[in-house]
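[Discussion] Sanity-checking designs against the backbone

I'm trying to build intuition for which residues belong where. Below is a structure token string of 288 positions. I'd appreciate it if someone posts a full sequence so I can compare it with mine line by line.
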């Protein structure tokens, strides 16, 4: 009877240790570069002047916005998103619109309810966060006239409900983004597939924005105009059934980052369980 109780107790301890290992590993994988716990804004931003927007029928001839952004001939599609070199899936539909000399395709914007529920999307669109890099491959199609700008991955993170714990905007000067943030920004001149990337400074370093305009200026388009100019008559861009052409995220690979985390934690737990069970077997052998 005593041997049975010892054996059962050691097995239970091994299982508990395994579960704790998996939980701790998963928790560590859920933080951003500045120990962030959510995304405030996330999108791909493509340089496009107002004249270029009119020439490509993104804006009307008089420069006004269309009644429905999904009716414009230019389409942006997200082909793949990687966090720390692991493919991730975005849970939601992107919204494309033009503003401030940029063609914007956003998956998260806490200031615009039309982008996957606004604040709701901060924690639901992505189930894991990057700590070192974000890489986005996208395709732009439907251009009838050349462009002259660059594309970048842009947005910001939040921590404990604070909308802007850190930012990453490739079109802003040094001092707005955390020190050490760098970008790979491809020249987008015409239709095609491009890849943009952002590199974050080492976690634990100087990751606070030194400029006070990171919230006021860097996100002025997202916070104010996105909610007013682009919000009007653009709900269809968020919920359009034309998912293949309006830019619905097509990265359908499984969440490699979280899957890898779970697999690693499980492996460690299984190893610990094996050790405990082996110890129990030794006790039984000696008692005989």
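Best answer:
Here's mine. Compare freely.
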């Amino acid at each position: 009877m005593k041997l049975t109780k010892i054996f059962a107790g050691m097995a239970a301890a091994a299982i508990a240790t395994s579960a704790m290992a998996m939980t701790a590993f998963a928790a560590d994988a859920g933080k951003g570069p500045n120990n962030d716990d959510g995304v405030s804004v996330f999108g791909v931003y493509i340089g496009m002047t107002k004249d270029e927007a009119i020439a490509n029928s993104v804006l009307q001839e008089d420069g006004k916005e269309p009644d429905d952004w999904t009716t414009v001939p230019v389409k942006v599609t997200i082909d793949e998103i990687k966090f720390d070199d692991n493919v991730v899936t975005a849970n939601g539909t992107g919204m494309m619109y033009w503003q401030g000399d940029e063609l914007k395709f956003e998956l998260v914007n806490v200031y615009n309810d039309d982008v996957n529920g606004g604040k709701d999307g901060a924690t639901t669109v992505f189930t894991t966060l990057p700590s070192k890099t974000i890489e986005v491959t996208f395709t732009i199609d439907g251009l009838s006239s050349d462009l002259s700008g660059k594309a970048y991955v842009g947005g910001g993170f939040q921590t404990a409900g604070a909308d802007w714990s850190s930012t990453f905007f490739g079109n802003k000067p040094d001092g707005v983004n955390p020190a050490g943030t760098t970008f790979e920004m491809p020249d987008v001149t015409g239709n095609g597939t491009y890849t943009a990337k952002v590199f974050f400074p080492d976690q634990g370093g100087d990751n606070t924005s030194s400029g006070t305009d990171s919230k006021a200026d860097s996100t002025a388009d997202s916070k104010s105009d996105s909610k007013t100019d682009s919000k009007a008559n653009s709900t269809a861009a968020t919920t359009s059934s034309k998912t293949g052409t309006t830019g619905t995220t097509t990265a359908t690979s499984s969440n490699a980052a979280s899957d890898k985390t779970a697999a690693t934690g499980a492996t460690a737990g299984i190893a610990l369980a094996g050790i405990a069970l082996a110890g129990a077997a030794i006790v039984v052998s000696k008692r005989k």
